[in-house]
Structures are given as structure tokens and as C-alpha cells.
Amino acid sequence: MNAVITGASKGIGKAIAEKLASEGFNVAICARNAETLEKAAADIRLVNPVIQVLAIPVDMGKKDEVLAFADRIKSTFTTVDVLVNNAGLFVPGSLHEQEDGLLESLMATNVYSAYHLTRQLLEGMKANRKGHIFNMCSTASYTSYPNGGAYSITKFALLGFSRNLREELKSHNVKVTSLSPGPTLTASWEGFEAPPRRMMEPEDVAKLLWGAYTLSEQAVVEEVIMRPILGDIS
């Protein structure tokens, strides 16, 4: 079994890669920082030394690098059973104050990367009539927040992409799930002093993904919203 997880050098992506590795999946991971990525790959290998880990530095905001990553995956793995479109950037700020070009930059990383990588890997899933695509959305895909700005726009767009993909792939027996976590203890929240019970753990998201993946063949979780038990952080 083979899985692809983007943005997997830390946080939610790394937790998902480690979980899938522990369950026997070979994993292909990517991130922009080569040093951090290689450390993540080493940690994943410790979880399960017998699986294969393909770790490729990729700027997911650049289409040519996304396509090159897809080519490496296809030349390494005969099939892709799980694709997790997790790569994303979070830049807060109101629309009228954010710098020109930020929306285009965030769209490229948060939305277009998932679009291009999915298109490259989808034919194999359709041919095998098997596969599961997880798109890492957000509570910001459903609710507008102060200072959500361009980031919130991209997350609404990613949810739309995911919903459309779900409809298109029903007849091909390929599952699509949108996972939308709220505040999670990742690098996006660095510097924020979180009180106890106000942040979820990345491993919570990984466990939920695994639960959705292991349902019967005729069942699919279409969308999940996750929040800390005390709700959003205002």
C-alpha cells in the first residue's frame, strides 16, 4: 500500500505520514525545507523501518515542481492508495490590508497544488477502481473569521474542489473526504500561548483520517469538521 502526503515535514502532515507508516504504508512526502523534510523522513522510518519513504523537497506553489513530484511518485509506486492534499500556508490579515499578490500566492499553494497533483495521480486510482483522496480543509472553509482574508478564500475554494471531486469520482469507486480541523497545535500557531484543552493535537487528525479510511468499501465520510472541545479560539 502506498500513500502520498504533501506538506508532511511537521504538524498534521507528519502525524498522518507516521500513522500511515505505522499501518504498513509506503509513503511519499514533500515540503519546501529540505532539512526539515529529511528529519521527518528519518522519524517516519523509525516508526516502521520496513516501509519505503520517498522524501522530495517541493515548493507546492509552483506547478512545475508539483508535476515533477507527481512523476517521481509514479516512477516509484505502482499504485497510490491514499492521497492527502495537506500542503498549505496560513497568512492572517484583512483583505484591504494584505499585500498585493498574496491571494494569488496562497491560491497556488493551498488550492492549485491539490488540483494539479490530484489530476496527475487520479488516472491510476480510476483504473484500479480504488483509492482515497483526503483534502485538508479547515473550519475556515465553512465560517468567516476576522482577519481570515485571502487564507479563508483559499479554504472555501479547497472545500469546493473537494465536493466537486467527490461527485465526479462516485462512479469510479474512488473515495473523497474533506477534513476540516480547527485550532491544532502546529507551526501555524507558533507564539500563541494556548491554554489547556484549547488546541487539538495533530495526532487527533491522523487518527480521524485513519478511521475514515478503514470504513467498509461501500461507505465514505464526505466531510468532517473538528474543533477543540471548548470550541474555536476567538
Describe this structure in words.
- By secondary structure, this protein is an alpha/beta fold.
- The protein has one domain (2-226): NAD(P)-binding Rossmann-like Domain (Rossmann fold, 3-Layer(aba) Sandwich).
- 43% of the residues lie in helices and 15% in strands.
- The protein contains six helices and seven strands; from the N terminus they run E-H-E-H-E-H-E-H-E-H-E-H-E.
- It has a seven-stranded parallel beta sheet, sandwiched between helices.
- Helix 1 links the parallel strand 1 (2-5) and strand 2 (26-31).
- The longest helix has 27 residues, at 102-128.
- The chain is globular and about 45 Å long.
- The chain starts with a strand and ends in an 8-residue tail after the last strand.
Features:
234 residues, alpha/beta, Rossmann fold, 7-stranded parallel β-sheet, 6 helices, 43% helix, NAD(P)-bd_dom_sf, Short-chain dehydrogenase/reductase SDR
Strand tally: 7
- The shape, in one word, is globular
The CATH topology label is Rossmann fold
CATH class: Alpha Beta
Family: Belongs to the short-chain dehydrogenases/reductases (SDR) family.
InterPro entries: NAD(P)-bd_dom_sf, Sc_DH/Rdtase_CS, SDR_fam
GO molecular function: oxidoreductase activity
GO cellular component, one term: membrane
Layout of helices and strands:
Elements: E1 2-5, H1 11-22, E2 26-31, H2 34-47, E3 53-57, H3 63-76, E4 82-85, H4 102-128, E5 132-136, H5 149-169, E6 175-181, H6 202-213, E7 223-226
Parallel strand pairs: 1-2, 1-4, 2-3, 4-5, 5-6, 6-7
Short overview:
By secondary structure, the protein is an alpha/beta fold. The protein has one domain (2-226): NAD(P)-binding Rossmann-like Domain (Rossmann fold, 3-Layer(aba) Sandwich), CATH 3.40.50.720. It has 6 helices and 7 strands, in the order βαβαβαβαβαβαβ.
